[in-house]
Design goal:
This is PC-esterase domain-containing protein 1A. By secondary structure, the chain is of the alpha/beta class. Helix content is about 40%, strand content about 15%. Strands 3-4-5-2-6-7-8 form a 7-stranded mixed β-sheet, sandwiched between helices. A two-stranded antiparallel sheet has the order 1-9.
Length: about 280
């Protein structure tokens, strides 16, 4: 399959993020964001289907599993943990898997930032687990937890830290995934609309705290052919587009001119995925 899009090259990513500490927080989609960034910082290549599907592995493209995942018991519960890190001579990228935007675990992550190295960039999203796995009437709880998270983040991190809140991407009509345990199957029918509502709340609140908001729901509304058959996750082309959007956004925030020529590229595994969509 051929697709034309504006993309950031390996060399541009390396230069833009030189000597930067990037933190990615969120669910399996955000894990894909982390993985694609780690890959692009090393080579001009795209994630394979297996790399996108795998979780908790000991190592991915020269990174290491720091905590949780296969170091612990693998499961689909809200207490699942996975902390990954990639480090080169000039780049540090870390991923934390979270299932709730503000919790005891999130407080411990924020405490790491308070006591240790401050990230230059934080890329964060937490929504689908928040609104499906905890409370039936999720709206007030989600809003309150977002406020606590944004408030603490604002207090802990310096003004120069670029914080990007990713809005949740469109869900399919029929969805399946690790977060959909049997007891919440009844929520599936309205989860798509709940995500839209949650995006409105989170995006508005993030903006009021001065965070940067990247509306991935809007960006991918006409790219649904890149969503995988589970109705939740996205293929390698989509993830490279997300990475490019994030890096273009970062460059703009830092006043860096980042020429992004339109390039046409092929990805055989994505072609194979498309045939079953």
């Amino acid at each position: 399959m051929k697709e034309t899009m504006k993309r950031v090259s390996h060399q541009q990513a390396v230069q833009l993020l030189q000597n930067k500490f990037i933190v990615v927080l969120g669910d399996s989609i955000q894990r894909g964001v982390y993985k694609d960034l780690v890959l692009l910082l090393q080579k001009e290549k795209y994630l394979s289907s297996a790399q996108l599907k795998t979780k908790g592995e000991m190592s991915f493209e020269q990174d290491c599993l720091v905590e949780g995942g296969s170091l612990d018991k693998m499961h689909n519960g809200v207490e699942y943990r996975e902390v990954r890190q990639f480090q080169s001579d000039h780049h540090l990228v870390r991923f934390y898997f979270v299932t709730r935007i503000y919790s005891r675990y999130m407080r411990s992550i924020l405490e790491d930032f308070r006591q240790g190295l401050k990230p230059d960039v934080v890329i964060v999203n937490s929504c689908v687990w928040d609104i499906s796995r905890y409370l039936s009437n999720w709206i007030v709880d989600y809003q309150e937890r977002l406020k606590m998270f944004f408030e603490e983040l604002h207090t802990i991190l310096p003004d120069k830290t670029l914080i990007i809140w990713n809005l949740t991407m469109p869900l399919g009509q029929k969805i399946k995934g690790g977060f959909l345990v049997p007891e919440i199957k009844h929520k599936v029918s309205h989860l798509r609309q709940d995500v839209i509502e949650a995006n409105f709340y989170s995006g508005t609140l993030a903006n009021s705290y001065g965070l940067d908001v990247l509306d991935l729901h809007f960006q991918f509304r006409f790219s649904l052919q890149h969503r995988t058959t589970d109705g939740v996750h996205w293929n390698a082309l989509a993830h490279r587009k997300i990475t490019s959007l994030l890096l273009q956004h970062s460059a703009q925030a830092w006043g860096v001119i980042l020429p992004c020529p339109v390039a046409t590229f092929e990805h055989p595994e994505v072609t194979e995925q498309q045939s079953v969509l």
